[in-house]
């Protein structure tokens, strides 16, 4: 679905939807920005019951990472499978008895429901100091970032600060199309390749798009978007 020419509207399709300013679009191709709405066609019935269960991160220090995700984001450790002396896999999750904290579950209860839950985090650790892991904030790769929803961003930021969390930017601050943000969004070399395109991307996407988000990194440097539960959604 194309936006009417010159219309100032939500344009950058992140998880939450964003509203850019008119000046950001002044020099853009009239065909962009636009929103391509998804289809109302039902999914293949054969996929009934399919859902995203977990995502996995390779980590350099399993003890540090499990503690960080527990203390900072409230995920609870379900178990650590220690396959060998060097190789371990941990599973973490928020309680699913309700929104995190509204329905307490024991670890065994969470584990029983593990394959019927969404939003789990798997942390994989292989002890090999000769091959350090490189996060997406350092070098663009197929993993960009993941997003966390919080009910109160200012309160979350204040808490993160007390916990010593590393901020790339805070909510209300301008984003920079260089360094860790550029790498995480797959735009690491855009300034070198095409400075004009880089500036267009910044004005139309990052400058207005990420201003209300907080961006933090975990112990391995992976980017985490912290978004408000009440951010307006795209309209189409």
Automatic annotation (TrEMBL):
Q: Signal sequence span per UniProt?
A: 1-24
Q: Which SUPFAM superfamilies match?
A: Glyoxalase/Bleomycin resistance protein/Dihydroxybiphenyl dioxygenase
PROSITE patterns in the cross-refs: PROKAR_LIPOPROTEIN, VOC
Give all residue intervals belonging to the VOC domain.
Answer: 51-229
Q: Which Pfam families match?
A: Glyoxalase
Domain of life of the organism in this record? Eukaryota
Alphabetized UniProt keyword annotations: Signal
Could you tell me which PANTHER family the record lists for this protein?
A: LACTOYLGLUTATHIONE LYASE GLYOXALASE I, LYASE (GLO1), PUTATIVE (AFU_ORTHOLOGUE AFUA_2G13550)-RELATED
Protein name as annotated: VOC domain-containing protein
Annotated source species: Podospora didyma
